[in-house]
């Protein structure tokens, strides 16, 4: 039965399909092939979600080796939710990529670019679906290596330096992760996540366990770009091709957050409860403080950026702070706020970066000062940008409002009124930097000698409009986003399977 | 900690030393190629750590035969085979980027690159 093999195909299809892009060589067939593959991935992710909703979690044994000896692919509701998010954004950005890539990357490299894109998608889907801690590292590196290459394809030589720095920090992060997994393997003799969660509480009071948790936390936070380990993110996002920025900003950091939740809330949390950790600050408090600092420093630095892509990149650092803050509450409301913000922020940042990509295609610059008068000259693109911006701030009726509201509720539930206050304050900072763009685009007339600017081509506008409307849709219809997040959070914290 | 314990943990001391040498090189060296060399040492240290933790005293390779009863755990070695492949790929991508940086900037020294960057007005 093909349906039984879906979890494996979800990862194997883009992996096997990637080299074919290189064989096809010419830009148009390579794009067509990659488009078909990403659509197929989205189809599989949706059918997996439906299967999980009706029949409960799926456990797939690779090569028919039973876990914990063999590699297990595990699909529960949260996994399926993230799979749909990643492959959905992947398909949407791919539809948009045709025109944008033609303008930004020399044509002889198009086929290679699409191959990299599929490999990156493979890695992200694999990280999401796997139930094996070491297997996760392999997928992490597949996605990271292709990401370094894609960032390096950006226009201008700064892209190369950004890619190099990302490579160094990304590899250090991944190696820390392997080291943490190795230490866990040393004390438990297993790599299967569910099995680890069962065996760890018995050995939680060892120094090895604490060291492992430390290495895992630092390694994953580097990948997640949690403050203060975010230094690689702004240059990489600012100099990568527009398509790559939109794809990475809305998927790569989200998958890292998902992995962090899997490892810490599902695998390590039972052991933490069993351990007697010394010290006045628990590990949760440290994370909460870092998340709060990220929220402010990211937004604050974003205000002073002249480059729109760099500004949005710093805003991402701040938004990661919101998500991690939600997770660090370790309550159902808080965790579901983190998860739903992960979902909404993926949509928000995809909207904003795709809109900026359209602007770059038409005026050849992403400096805020060059965007004067664009509100009239590219009305649809800028309307999408404004919609994304409103959602980023958290205006009622948009997706961003739902998740911030949930986050504030979580803070009150814990009695953290100061956290709720800080969430409100840092949202005001978001108003400032979004307004900076809006002011220039709508209220500053275009310079007299400016060349005429057309609206972006239809093949880019349609995906942009779709994702922009998602902001409104998920602001009003919250069953699919918040409902799933809440159920997933309850099952993660409940310790049982949904 | 007794002297026997210190000696008994020799492989871990070595691994920590190597790892720190590699990490220090990544941080302190200004030459982009040397940084990658440091990264390699850093990764090799983790490889050594994995392999040495799987070793069983007087153990042989895990071959099914009546002569052998004590086996070394093969799983860490297998995992490290994968990690070595990943490390080679990382080195290749990193060196390729360094070549492109040399072509684009004419230097691979970090301080000179930063100077060029600030002159570019970034």
Description:
The complex is a heterodimer of chains A (498) and B (122). Chain A has 498 residues and is an all-alpha fold. Chain A has helices at residues 6-24, 27-55, 77-104, 110-129, 133-152, 158-188, 193-199, 207-224, 233-239, 242-274, 283-303, 308-329, 332-363, 374-377, 379-393, 399-414, 417-443, 458-476, 479-494; strands spanning 58-61, 72-75. Chain A has a domain at 279-498. Chain A contains 19 helices and 2 strands. The relative contact order of chain A is 0.09. With 122 residues, chain B is mainly α. Chain B has a single domain, classed as Helix Hairpins. Chain B has helices at residues 3-8, 10-28, 32-54, 74-105, 110-119. The model of chain B has no long low-confidence stretch (mean pLDDT 88). The chains are: A mainly alpha (498), B mainly alpha (122). Chains A and B meet through helix 5 and helix 6 of A and helix 3 and helix 4 of B.
Quick recap:
Chain A has 498 residues and is mainly α. Chain A has helices at 6-24, 27-55, 77-104, 110-129, 133-152, 158-188, 193-199, 207-224, 233-239, 242-274, 283-303, 308-329, 332-363, 374-377, 379-393, 399-414, 417-443, 458-476, 479-494, and strands spanning 58-61, 72-75.
Characteristics of this structure?
heterodimer; A: 498 residues; mainly alpha; 77% helix; B: 122 residues; Helix Hairpins; 74% helix
Instruction: Note the gap between the termini of chain B.
Output: 53 Å
Number of strands of chain B: 0
| Count of β-strands of chain A | 2
Low-confidence runs of at least 5 consecutive residues of chain A: none
Biggest sheet statistics of chain B: none
Could you give the topology of this structure?
The complex is a heterodimer of chains A (498) and B (122).
Chain A lengths: L5 H19 L2 H29 L2 E4 L10 E4 L1 H28 L5 H20 L3 H20 L5 H31 L4 H7 L7 H18 L8 H7 L2 H33 L8 H21 L4 H22 L2 H32 L10 H4 L1 H15 L5 H16 L2 H27 L14 H19 L2 H16 L4
Antiparallel strand pairs in A: 1-2
Helix pairs in contact in A: 1-2, 1-4, 2-3, 2-4, 3-4, 3-10, 3-13, 3-18, 4-5, 4-10, 5-6, 5-10, 6-8, 6-9, 7-10, 8-10, 9-10, 9-12, 10-12, 10-13, 11-12, 11-17, 12-13, 12-16, 12-17, 13-15, 13-16, 13-18, 13-19, 15-17, 15-18, 16-17, 16-18
Chain B lengths: L2 H6 L1 H19 L3 H23 L19 H32 L4 H10 L3
């Amino acid at each position: 039965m093909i349906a039984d093999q879906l979890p494996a195909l979800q990862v194997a299809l883009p992996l096997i399909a990637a080299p074919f892009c290189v064989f096809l060589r010419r830009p148009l067939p390579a794009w067509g092939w990659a488009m078909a593959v990403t659509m197929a991935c989205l189809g599989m992710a949706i059918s997996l979600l439906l299967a999980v909703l009706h029949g409960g979690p799926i456990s797939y044994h690779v090569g028919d080796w039973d876990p914990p000896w063999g590699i297990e692919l595990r699909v529960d509701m949260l996994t399926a939710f993230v799979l749909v998010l990643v492959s959905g954004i992947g398909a949407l950005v791919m539809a948009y990529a045709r025109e944008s890539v033609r303008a930004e990357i020399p044509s002889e490299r198009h086929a290679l670019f699409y191959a990299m894109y599929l490999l990156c998608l493979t890695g992200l889907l694999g990280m999401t679906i796997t139930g094996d801690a070491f297997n996760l590292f392999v997928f992490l590196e597949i996605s990271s290596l292709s990401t370094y290459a894609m960032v390096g394809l950006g226009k201008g030589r700064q892209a190369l330096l950004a890619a190099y720095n990302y490579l160094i920090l990304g590899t250090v992060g991944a190696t820390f992760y392997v080291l943490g997994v190795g230490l866990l393997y040393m004390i438990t003799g297993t790599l299967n996540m569910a099995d680890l969660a069962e065996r760890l509480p018995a050995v939680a009071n060892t120094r090895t366990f604490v060291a492992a948790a430390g290495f895992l936390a630092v390694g994953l936070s580097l990948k997640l770009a949690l403050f203060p380990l975010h230094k690689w993110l702004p240059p990489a996002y600012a100099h990568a091709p527009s398509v790559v920025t939109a794809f990475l900003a809305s998927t790569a950091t989200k998958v890292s957050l998902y992995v962090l939740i899997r490892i810490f809330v599902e695998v390590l949390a039972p052991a933490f409860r069993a351990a007697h950790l010394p010290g006045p600050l628990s590990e949760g408090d440290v994370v909460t403080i870092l998340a709060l600092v990220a929220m402010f420093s990211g937004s604050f630095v974003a205000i002073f950026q002249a480059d729109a892509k760099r500004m949005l990149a710093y805003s991402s650092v701040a938004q990661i702070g919101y998500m991690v803050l939600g997770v660090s509450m370790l309550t159902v409301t808080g965790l579901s706020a983190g998860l739903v913000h992960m979902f909404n922020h993926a949509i928000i940042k995809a909207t904003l970066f795709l809109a900026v990509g359209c602007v770059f295609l038409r005026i050849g610059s992403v400096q805020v000062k060059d965007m004067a008068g664009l509100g009239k000259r590219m009305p649809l693109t800028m309307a999408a940008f404004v919609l994304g911006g409103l959602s980023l701030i958290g205006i009622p009726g948009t997706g961003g409002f739902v998740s911030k509201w949930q986050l504030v509720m979580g803070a009150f539930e814990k009695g953290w009124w100061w956290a709720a206050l800080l969430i409100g304050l840092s949202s005001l900072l978001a108003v400032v930097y979004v307004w900076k763009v809006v002011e220039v685009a709508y209220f500053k007339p275009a310079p007299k000698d400016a060349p005429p600017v057309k609206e972006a081509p239809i093949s880019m506008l349609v995906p942009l409009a779709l994702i922009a409307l998602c902001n409104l849709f998920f602001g009003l219809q919250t069953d699919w986003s918040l409902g799933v997040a809440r159920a997933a959070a309850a099952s993660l914290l409940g310790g049982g399977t949904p | 900690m007794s002297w026997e314990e210190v000696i008994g943990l020799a492989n871990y001391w070595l691994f920590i030393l190597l790892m720190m040498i590699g990490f220090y090189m990544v941080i302190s060296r200004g030459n982009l190629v040397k940084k990658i060399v440091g990264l390699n040492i850093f990764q090799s240290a983790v490889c050594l750590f994995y392999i040495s933790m799987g070793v069983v005293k007087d153990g042989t390779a895990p071959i099914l035969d009546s002569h052998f009863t004590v086996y070394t755990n093969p799983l860490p070695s297998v995992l490290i085979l994968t990690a070595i492949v990943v490390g080679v790929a990382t080195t290749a991508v990193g060196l390729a980027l360094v070549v492109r940086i040399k072509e684009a900037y004419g230097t691979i020294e970090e301080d000179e690159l930063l100077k060029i960057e600030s002159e570019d007005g970034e």
